[in-house]
Amino acid sequence: MNDGILALDAASLAAAVRSGEVTAVEVVETYLAQISVQEPEVGAFLSIDAEAAISAAAALDRARESGEELGPLAGVPVALKDNLCTTGFPTTAASRILEGWIPPYNATVVDRVLAAGGIAIGKTNLDEFAMGSSTENSGYKITRNPHDLDRVPGGSSGGSAAAVVSRMALLALGSDTGGSIRQPASLTGIVGLKPTYGRVSRYGLLAFASSLDQIGPMAATVKDAALMAEVIFGHDPMDATSLAVPVPALVDGIEGGVRSLRIGLVSNLLEVAAPAVAAAVERAAAALAGEGATVETVAIPELSLGLPAYYVVAPAEASSNLARYDGVRYGFRGEGATAEEMMVSSRSEGFGAEVKRRIMLGTYALSAGYYDAFYLRAQRVRSLVRSAFQEAYSRFDLLLSPTSPTTAFKIGERSDDPVEMYRSDVCTIPSNLSGDPAISVPFGKEGGLPIGVQLMGPALAEERLLRAAYALEAGWSGE
Amino acid sequence: MGEWEAVIGLEVHTELRTATKLFCGCPNAFGVEPNTSVCPVCLGLPGSLPVLNAKAVELAITVGLALSSRIQPSQFHRKNYFYPDMPKDYQISQYDVPVNAGGAVALRSGKVVGIVRAHLEEDTGKLVHRGGGGRIGGAEYSLIDYNRSGVPLLEIVSEPEISSAEEAKEYVSELRAILVATGASDGRMEEGSLRVDANVSVRPSGSAELRTRVEIKNVNSLRSLGRAIGYEIERQIAVYEGGGSILQQTRHFDEASGETLPLRAKEEANDYRYFPEPDLPPISPLPAEVERIASELPLLPAGRRSRLFELVEGASPDQVEVAIAEEVWPYVTASIDFGVAPELVLARAANELVALIGDAGLLTPLRFAEVVALEERFSPSQVKLLLKGAVGFDGTVEELVARVGLSSSGAEDARAMIKEVVEANPEEWGRFVAGDAKVGGFLLGQVMRKFGRAISGAQARAALDELASGAAGE
What CA–CA distance (Å, rounded) separates B7 from B1? Predict the structure, then answer.
């Protein structure tokens, strides 16, 4: 039965739990057994609460027995990125400055997953405050890529990606500020969706860059990602940037195909990719064309300007968002004879190097005398990216590109060169700047390492994106 | 002063009278147990997000309209600086595009002080320092109460067009009256719901230059404001006359010594790194909404003043000021509407009413009007007695008169009046006695038209019912 449980996708597993074919407790025990084998090698989690997971599962089973209708994620083990507030687990954003902090409230997405019957199995590792592309910047531990334990799983949602690909969780939530869902999905061979900005409530997400952050699903299959998206999408009055638009059906119709879709293959993003990655993207283009889409190559040079603009806007917002970690109210408190000294030592000792680097970059970019040259100029570039996308989406239904320029790199390989590390996000950043949705779906392998391709679409086009991603998934044999 | 003149600009912060805070649903409560009116949002907990209180925007626009400001689409910014009373270590405030731009306050003297802007922002928490004289520098430890954190503030910035301590007081008192009249603020300086910072500089009389200004904080009353500004003007003149120069600094008014003292030993140049608040979409008030607010704007102090001066030629300005005060005005309008002579209303409001106003909850404006109207039957001194007796008394006016010992025949008089009206309207009376309650209103109207000055509605009603029940029993 255990292998049977692990083989089920989220919809089938939830259906089996709803019908009583398997119990939620059996499911959770199976996944906990899987965790006990995989986790020591992979290191995906920052906290796991087996007891709480089993008792939540038991409560679900009792509810079913008493005739209650269970939700669409009934009994599905879900891993939560550790920058999402949870009352049941510490929430640290992988930072020492929040060691042991337990929030008094759940993030809206967490409540929605739990209300749908999902079981929170644990909190996953990330680059500290989601700043990084390898999960090496965690203040606690390194997470390894299950495909090759010497390599990174990508980041910043590397723990969530590693948990899903090693079947320690069936679904996971990540957050994506510049590619933090899609790039690790690509490097671990899973599906990662960054929804339209405002589709998913950010309430309870520890902010990195508020105008770019978006929570999204990570899953083994496109259909599972769609199922999770249906659960977490929708307006939330607690988030003023949340969109008050209806949630479309995403799972129904996902097999509708790509016939007559106009797809643009973004040549300038293809050029930055390693040959094997570029080849996989071209094969994906051919596969889509084979399914009846019209594929055309298009250059959108403005998208390449996204990277420098992002590395001004994101640190600027982060420098302000991370100001509250000052040792006064919660988390780590350093020594100091005065309030000011205490704040300085708390922040100096509590934050890691990459976080401090970005706070300094952002503080500089917002400072008097530099604001116009950096922040305002970056905002102008952002508008440029947005209008370039707009123009492209007037001619194409979707755009196709690599997700990451390379496959998973070795642990430590890029640690000494932040700028090289930043380049990991060159293909994913533009959709964050425009606020549009994008998805990474596995399409090929190179030397045993997964390659993801990225589909990008206009605002609120998630249904179309998932449909095309599903067609790609079906069109790739697995090797 | 003579060769010197002062240039003063005021920043008035007022807490807005909303039920809840600016960005969360916590009660906007004063004087409750510390740290009980708080939630993840106003504590700035990781992951929390602000959601704008629409009522605060409406009150801000109300004030803007009352100040003749331009109501414009606006945007929140983050003002970044570290301080323990500020849970996010940034304040959400408005910066280059405030909700209200421009405007003016006309003082009683006729002088008009320009308004630069009136913008929304959130209040900080409150620090209490223990030990070391209650100042942060020498304190042994400090306590923080976040109940005030996130309370909506409107910051009203004047042009530097005020030229004396006296004028500054006049400006604040007029502005305060406007804020209270619009319902935006309770205007209580002593509770900190109205706070004033003064920017003061001096220059040679007649010159147009703007010299280095000093900001004075911590003035908790109009009197202190006057004292602080007066002291600061003299200090600056003395410094210049002694050949010195003024440092741009923030000074703190010391209530005990009457001096202004530098707040910090070392003045730091603040760089607040303002940038647009990404968690809040811009505010774009709809023209129809602004029109609705404008149409609901109450009569403002200046309007009240001119209405009274129109009604009473040569009215005493002091009496008028009393009459237009927020707590007195409803009594004045109720009495004038009731038909009492305005001169009489002003006199009674300024003398007797003010003495009773502490018990005002027990004296309704209508009751005040009824009693003041009796002045045609009684002497002024008797009416004063009646007013005192009316506090907390809910019987009829005639019963009041009887109670105060000025009449024993109130009820009999009422019966006589009713009888007179009933005899003049026999048909209606018959229907009323037969049970047609609607005709009662007509009969009562007749009584009031004829004897309205001498009898209250409730009294007439009671006598009418009494007579009818007697008639039905026959």
Answer: 13
Q: What is the pLDDT of residue A103?
A: 98
What pTM was computed for the model?
0.89
ipTM computed for the complex: 0.96
d(CA A82, CA B82): 26
Calpha distance B80→B276 (Å, rounded): 11
Picking from A93, A240, A375, the nearest residue to B49 by CB comes out as A240
Which runs of E-coded beta strand occur in B159-268? 194-204, 214-219, 249-254, 259-262
Measured in angstroms, the CA of B261 and the nearest CA of chain A are apart by 22
A282 touches chain B (CB under 8 A): no
Q: Is the dihedral of CA A149, A155, A159, A164 positive or negative?
A: negative
Cα dihedral angle (B295, B296, B297, B298), rounded to 10 degrees? 130
Query: To 10 degrees, the CA torsion angle through B214, B217, B221, B227?
Result: -30
Chain B residue numbers with beta carbons less than 8 Å from the beta carbon of A368 are 271, 273
Nearest-Cα distance to chain A for B81, in Å, is 8
3-state secondary structure A395-425: HCCEEEEECCCCCCCECCCCCCCHHHHHHHH
Burial of residue A340 (CB within 10 Å: 0-12, 13-18, 19+) is: middle
* A2-232 CATH, one of 2.60.40.230, 3.40.1570.10, 3.90.1300.10, 3.30.70.890: 3.90.1300.10
Q: Which token pair is A177?
A: 């500020």
In chain A, residues with a C-beta closer than 8 Å to the C-beta of B281 are 240-241
Catalytic residue among A138, A156, A242, A434: A156
Of A312, A319, A328, which to mutate for an interface test with B (greatest number of B Cβ within 10 Å)?
A: A328
Does A104 sit within 8 Å of B271, measured CB to CB? no
Does any CB of chain B come closer than 8 Å to the CB of residue A364?
no
Domain ranges of chain A: 2-232
Q: What is the pLDDT of residue B269?
A: 67
Cα dihedral across residues A143, A145, A150, A152: positive or negative = negative
Peptide bond into B284 cis (omega under 30): no
Over residues B48-60, the pLDDT tens digits come to: 999 999 999 999 9
Region B78-93: mean pLDDT is 96
For residues A389 and A391, give the distance between their C-alpha atoms in angstroms, rounded to a whole number. 5
Chain length of chain A: 479
Residue in A95, A134, A160, A180 annotated catalytic: A180
User: Do B279 and A210 lie within an 8 Å CB cutoff?
Assistant: yes
| Mean pLDDT split into 10-residue runs, chain A, 479 residues | 85 97 98 98 98 98 97 98 98 97 98 98 98 97 98 97 98 98 98 98 98 98 98 98 97 95 97 96 97 97 95 98 97 93 97 97 95 96 98 98 97 87 92 98 96 98 98 75
B44/A203 Cβ within 8 A: no
Helix (H) / strand (E) element for B158: namely: strand B152-158
**Distance between the two ends of chain A, CA-based, in angstroms?**
28
A180 classed as catalytic: yes
Pick from B43, B87, B281: CB nearest A240? B281
Question: Which residues in chain B are closer than 8 Å to A211, comparing Cβ atoms?
Answer: 278
Distances (CA, A) of A206 to A81, A260, B45: 10, 41, 9
Nearest CB partner across the interface for B47, out of A206, A320, A343: A206
